[in-house]
Design a protein that fits this description.
213 residues, mainly alpha, 7 helices, rod-shaped
Length: 213
């Protein structure tokens, strides 16, 4: 009986050992899985917060542009009023400029404002070309003073636009990079447009500080 009891004890010990080993394996696996989940969660939160931060940087950069755009919109009625006295035949172009200004002022989002302001820039560029045929207008003192104000404003707008485009590029790079693009897609982060100058405006913008109509 003693021999059998000793054998039973050994068998019991083996079973307990196997059970203990299984528990240790299960616990170890659980700890590893939890650790992986925590690391993934931390990375997930980090990427999301970075995307939010970059989006906020872009919005903050646009707030500086908004100040310059408001000054630009305020000058346009003066421009239209001055031109009307010398170039009455350009009613259609002046109407386009006025309508484009109204659309830009009514835009509610950053991207809508960019699109509307580009339309306004195109309308102003068309008017600028047409006014080359009016030497009396170009000799007008009020008109020349307005040109100087517009030139100064355009230079400031150009600087703020470059900074805005830099923040937009950084956001777009983060959105398009793997694996951050997976997280970006889950939360609706999409590639955003730059505030690019229309082609017809580029030459004029590069000729700072003077704008010729």
């Amino acid at each position: 009986m003693a021999f059998n009891l000793h054998g039973n004890n050994k068998e019991t010990e083996k079973k307990l050992s196997r059970i203990l080993i299984k528990k240790i394996i299960i616990m170890s696996t659980t700890v590893i899985v939890l650790a992986v989940v925590v690391v993934i969660a931390i990375y997930f939160i980090s990427v999301y917060n970075r995307l939010v931060g970059l989006r906020n940087n872009r919005e903050n950069a646009f707030s500086n542009i908004s100040v310059q755009l408001k000054q630009r919109y305020d000058m346009i009625p003066q421009l239209v009023a001055t031109v009307k006295g010398y170039a009455d035949h350009e009613k259609e172009l002046l109407q386009k400029v006025t309508e484009a200004r109204a659309a830009a002022m009514g835009a509610n989002t950053i991207n809508d404002t960019i699109a509307a302001d580009n339309q306004l820039s195109s309308a102003l560029a068309g008017l600028r070309v047409s006014l080359e045929a009016y030497p009396d207008l170009k000799a007008n003192t009020n008109f020349n003073n307005l040109q100087m104000e517009i030139a100064d404003m355009e230079n400031k707008l150009s600087a703020t636009r470059r900074f805005f485009n830099s923040t937009t590029k950084e956001l777009n790079t983060a959105i398009q990079s793997f694996p951050a693009n997976l997280i970006a897609g889950m939360f609706g982060f999409t590639v955003q447009p730059m505030f690019e100058i229309p082609v017809e405006q580029q030459a004029a913008m590069e000729k700072a500080p003077e704008i010729k109509f």
